Amino acid sequence: MAPHAMKCQFIDNPPCPQHTAFMTTENETLVEKALSKLIGRGDARAAPEGRLRSSRPDASSSSKTEWLAAVRAVPIADLRVEIHHVLADGDHVVMHSRRWIPGAGPGIAGVDIWRLEDGLIAEGWEIIEPVTEAASHVVWWEPVPPAADARP
């Protein structure tokens, strides 16, 4: 490998003969309906059905019960969501959105990846970024200067 070559490992779903265009569209619709109920009703009891396991970039994960507890902490009735993209491939659905609560600041941008199994959401991964920090994340490899109030 050349010294300047990118080291990268792709981890993806292997091709599966059961993945069809219909399955992809059906899964996209299932996720959209589940999240619309959750956000539209403003009630965590309308959460996606299934054995949901949620994972975060920090390698933490939570059960459906823990995920629902975190969702209940958000004032869902006030939450606003702009869905910018919904993409589906086989049993995975990806959603890019911006979320905010009026009067509470600019909000976050998020990417959610959902894996469906037997017509239910089985797993979810989420990456969120406060929109006010987006510019600083463009150069994520540069060291962050210590905060003015940080102590050695």
UniProtKB/TrEMBL annotation:
This is SnoaL-like domain-containing protein. It comes from the Bacteria. InterPro entries: NTF2-like_dom_sf, SnoaL-like. Residues 65-123 form the SnoaL-like domain. Pfam families: SnoaL_2.
